[in-house]
Design a protein that fits this description.
Blueprint lengths: L12 E5 L3 E6 L2 E6 L4 E2 L2 E2 L7 H16 L7 E3 L7 H4 L2 H4 L3 E5 L2 E2 L2 E8 L2 H10 L1 E2 L2 E2 L9 E7 L2 E2 L11 H8 L1 H24 L2 E12 L5 E4 L8 E5 L15 H8 L14 H19 L3 H4 L3
Antiparallel strand pairs: 1-2, 2-3, 3-7, 4-5, 6-7, 8-14, 9-12, 9-13, 9-14, 10-11, 14-15, 14-16
Keywords: ATP-binding, Ligase, Nucleotide-binding, Purine biosynthesis
InterPro entries: SAICAR_synt/ADE2_N, SAICAR_synth, SAICAR_synthetase_CS
Family: Belongs to the SAICAR synthetase family.
């Protein structure tokens, strides 16, 4: 296994290096490479997580195929043999962790759906009994299941933290028709995925989606989808409302960092070997629960 913290593909046009992904432009499309970097509180941590890039890419591919009856997505191929030669020559850097995708104009909104009250939504509820302008019943406890999933969008900040916004603000940003469309599709995707995951032992407490407009003017699902980086995954067998839940996502890393005297600004502290190993195991476990497959065996790793 090779840990990839940063790709270097000579001859390829690097468009952007995000917190986790390196994005290349090729022939009017993009190649997205999920590295093993991990971020928390919008800071990239110094230690990579083994197999993380594989998990993010392979789970996204699984969900893109599962959800294509609801909305088209940007995935063209994850088969390296269909990538330009410059990527084939750098096979070890891109294998199992890359997607060739359509270029699209991203909408300036993070589409967050919550089926349970946790994280920033729990903090907001305690202060105002509402989340993103949506009034919620009195008497909810941390991690309670909501009567219906709610759409709680946020801004997409290039720097700093995203900010929760109301649906009315989304309308101001992109117009009534498109705002209603992404809200309704986000809720439909979440409902279908949550039912599927629950039957396999995982609660999807909340998640975020990103949408873009492709060259034909069509709305498509982009970026990653329903991964341990973009979602809060809880083991159904251990679910007990009234407190924070154990998770299959990077909440484990966040919890460790919260126990330190760190001000959440760079540079981030080193992660202990035990935290790195446990986080890697949680990502792989999430993949196995959702797909029924052992990823390392599937990829012959």
């Amino acid at each position: 296994m090779r840990l990839i913290t940063e790709t270097n593909i000579p001859g390829a046009k690097l468009l952007k290096r995000g917190k986790v992904r390196d994005i290349y432009e090729v022939d009017g499309n993009l190649i997205i490479v999920a590295t093993d970097r991990i971020s928390a509180f919008d800071v990239v941590l110094p230690n990579p997580i083994p197999y993380k890039g594989y998990v993010l890419t392979q789970i996204s591919i699984f969900w893109f195929n599962f959800l294509k009856g609801i909305i088209k997505n940007h995935l063209i191929s994850a088969d390296i043999s269909e990538f330009p030669d410059v990527f084939k020559r750098n096979y070890e850097q891109v294998i199992h962790r890359s997607m060739l995708v359509k270029k699209a104009k991203p909408l300036p909104v993070e589409c967050i759906v919550r089926g349970y009250i946790s994280g920033s939504a729990w903090k907001e509820y305690k202060a105002s009994r509402s989340v993103c302008g949506i009034k919620l019943p009195d008497g909810l406890n941390e991690s309670d299941k909501l009567d219906e999933p709610i759409f709680t969008p946020s801004t997409k900040a290039e720097t700093g933290h995203d900010e929760n916004i109301s649906f009315e603000k989304v309308v101001d940003l992109i117009g009534q028709e498109l705002a209603e469309k992404i809200r309704d599709i986000s809720l439909e995707i979440y409902t279908k995925a949550e039912k599927y995951a629950r039957e396999r032992g995982i609660i999807i407490a909340d998640t975020k989606f990103e949408f873009g407009i492709d060259e034909n003017g069509e709305l498509i699902l982009i970026d990653e989808v329903l991964t341990p980086d973009s979602s809060r995954f809880w083991p159904l067998s251990e679910y007990k409302p009234g407190k924070p839940q154990p998770s299959f996502d990077k909440q484990y890393v966040r919890d460790y960092l919260e126990s330190l005297n760190w001000d959440k600004t760079p540079p981030a502290p080193e992660l202990p070997e035990e935290v790195i190993k446990k986080t890697s195991e949680k990502y792989l476990e999430a993949y196995k629960f959702l797909t029924g497959e052992d990823l390392l065996k599937k990829l012959n790793l």
